[in-house]
Amino acid sequence: MADKKLVEAITSMEEDFAQWYTDVVKKAELIEYSTVKGCIILKPAGYALWENIQRELDRRFKETGVENVYMPMVIPEGLLQKEKDHVEGFAPEVAWVTYGGGEQLEERLCIRPTSETLFCDFYKNEIHSYRDLPKVYNQWCSVFRWEKTTRPFLRSREFLWQEGHTMHETAEDAENRTVQMLNVYADFCKEYLAIPTIRGKKTDKEKFAGAVATYTIEAMMHDGKALQSGTSHNFGDGFAKAFGIQFTGRDNKLHTPHQTSWGLSTRIIGAMIMVHGDNSGLVLPPRIAPTQVVIIPIQQKKDGVLDAARALQEKLSDFRVKLDDSDRSPGFKFAEQEMRGFPLRVEIGPKDMEAGNCVVVRRDTREKFTVAQAELHDFVEKMLDTIHNDMYERAKKHLEENIFPAVTYDEFCDAINNKPGFVKAMWCGDVECENKIKEDTTATSRCMPFNDQEPISDRCVCCGKPAKHLVYWGKAY
Amino acid sequence: MADKKLVEAITSMEEDFAQWYTDVVKKAELIEYSTVKGCIILKPAGYALWENIQRELDRRFKETGVENVYMPMVIPEGLLQKEKDHVEGFAPEVAWVTYGGGEQLEERLCIRPTSETLFCDFYKNEIHSYRDLPKVYNQWCSVFRWEKTTRPFLRSREFLWQEGHTMHETAEDAENRTVQMLNVYADFCKEYLAIPTIRGKKTDKEKFAGAVATYTIEAMMHDGKALQSGTSHNFGDGFAKAFGIQFTGRDNKLHTPHQTSWGLSTRIIGAMIMVHGDNSGLVLPPRIAPTQVVIIPIQQKKDGVLDAARALQEKLSDFRVKLDDSDRSPGFKFAEQEMRGFPLRVEIGPKDMEAGNCVVVRRDTREKFTVAQAELHDFVEKMLDTIHNDMYERAKKHLEENIFPAVTYDEFCDAINNKPGFVKAMWCGDVECENKIKEDTTATSRCMPFNDQEPISDRCVCCGKPAKHLVYWGKAY
User: Fold this and answer.
1) Partner of A444 at 20 to 30 A CA spacing, among A262, B78, B249, B436?
2) CATH number, domain A293-383
3) What's the rounded Cα separation, in Å, for the pair B419 and B449?
4) Chain B contacts of A67, Cβ < 8 Å?
5) For B161, how many CA atoms within 13 A lie in the half-sphere containing its CB?
6) Separation of alpha carbons A278 and B71, rounded Å
7) Domain at A403-474: CATH code
8) Mean pLDDT to the nearest integer, A72-94
9) pTM of the prediction?
10) Structural domain spans, chain A
11) What share of chain A is helix, strand, coil (3-state, %, to 5)?
12) What's the pLDDT tens digit per position in B395-420?
């Protein structure tokens, strides 16, 4: 009965995708809602995902010369206001500290919504000569934005992220770093989370408050909606000028440095769930999975079964392996493995023992394999890679099959309203067309993709004026 | 000239220990002051220490069954007020958020000064049966306390730490976990930071707001002052009762669980600096040192020198090794290695190359060794352990030699005022004696040590009434 309850409790994704998502994050015990409005609690199974993301991404950052630092969590109002576009973008959604130590503050402090201003204030005293450049710093922290509607991982008032903030001698160096970090994100999504993404540039309307250019990786969820999964911004010298940061160049003259920032947050966990999950729950890509293999003994009270299970656990100690020897039924344990998304389960009972075998079941396809115990280690090693690759290929196929070209506005509206996925269409570059499209369809421009593609028309899909850019459009989380 | 400047810039610790400390944290580039009052910026060299502490301590936690979670960074006022002693302890020093999203809040939120209340609020919905116990959760985060006077690492408004919060079926389980985690801290200090500590129990006056018992590890700085380096609290069932947390026990009746919390913060970096540092700067214990070995080429423009240095770097790739091939002078590089506290430097120049040797210099003792290149790897491996052990033994000797017994109040005042270190004296258990001692001498009771020791008198050192406890007293950071 407990088995049934566990399975029945999930809404199917075809019936109600949003409810399916909410069910999965709760039933897989990733999060709990907090009584602190708009904030979530990351439970062990959810936080372990972030720990693994952090470890792997941090390693990749450091390979490119990134160093970690830590800045204060609050920003004095005067500092936030130094860059005009930035304060306009963020002031409406910050939380203000007005009392401290029992007294009203002379100057309000906001909880950081992002830390460009703090980094600039710091760099002002650190950068004097071209010898001090580049500065390639990052911090892992939480930020706070006063969101009105929130959803676990996708949008919450507080969220965990990393924010890189760099300063460079030349505009070219800054542009290169901006693109380099976007590529780090895209590779990380592909190689660690099995998520294919589209790399591209945001339109001016969609770019970050204060940036010259924003680059993005966009992923497609199972329901065809877009999720912006990581962004990298080139600030040019705007912030640096606003903060008066200057350095003596190789020519012995004063110059203003060029700046970037880039961030990836716990949102990516939401992406992973919505790209890979199914109607039995979470499906974790093997490289991030906190438990890669769960061993489930069958008839575990019979002589020798638990010992045999422990021997398999020992054999698999290279992997993140767990033995479930609790007194719950095998059926319950199977359902739990599926709900929690562990990539492989290994079953072993008296019959398998007699034959020197065990049974291995893939979470993603549910395929069953009878494997000789002596070959289990190598089988698991190869199978984890196979699962990763298969998950990536399935997600890639889904992405590619759900990008629909549109030349006329009727085609555009039809596709965006009736087909789950992105629409690929030409655009004149005018924000008014973006606004009209958003009003008519709720879709937004996701990005102008990097990989130069043939224009599919010479006219803007919306106004019919000459087209400047090919754009992917979609409804987004 | 640059070499001289680097060295001259430190105040000697005998002249002014406080200024020496400030000089070291700045010159070793661990921190920068922030324009956000009372907060510091952890620069790469400082944050790398915290990263290493986090990695090692987290590993030790997980070995004892700890799981990591993440709670919101703000606490609604009503939640903070649920436990009477706790709110009295913390309310005066919190920062209050009163506006969010452009509107005044109906209920103020404080930035967490610690998270007992959030964990209790969470556990209330998680714990129903004895099967749900124990819960052994921890989080790595930053907290905020409105301190009036601040010093880098030792006391700042925001600081990084970990806070463990556990719930147990019985009082005994909670007490065992409280002591277990104190021992994890003490072992970590000894084995990773080469810091000897005294383990003991705080007096009621000095215990945590809301705790039944607080245990502490106390370290002695080079100037003889105490630094509380980690604490572990047994809360009994006080918070759980205030929050209405109950579970069905094995007897099928309702019970209240027993709770602990324990924390260690970036303060420990301050301890490490003040236990091991010297007049040339930082001295890093080898296991935490982000750079364990720096290779400095001599006459590096001469043929083959840089290649030889790179070959040594390759040989030492098991360790955290850095090659300094910048165009600064060797003398500058030596001074920098000393200031930054890298445990070993390896010098290699044309003469050494001819002989197949290199020169290895210990940071802690400045001893020089001529080592055959073929033996360098093994030499470094052993030497890093030797340095760790020697640093620990020196610090232990310093601690033991600077604990002074006092039987009369005159002896007590004389020792506490004139000898740098702790005073060991008997106490009646009355808070008024603690208050008088603090008023007269500024010293506080550090702890009642764990290792049962012979009473040194049967009378309280302050009031002369019958003594109940042996106490270590000291002036503290």
Assistant:
1) A262
2) 3.40.50.800
3) 20
4) 44, 47-48
5) 27
6) 28
7) 3.30.110.30
8) 90
9) 0.96
10) 2-276, 293-383, 403-474
11) 40, 30, 35
12) 999 999 999 999 999 999 999 999 99
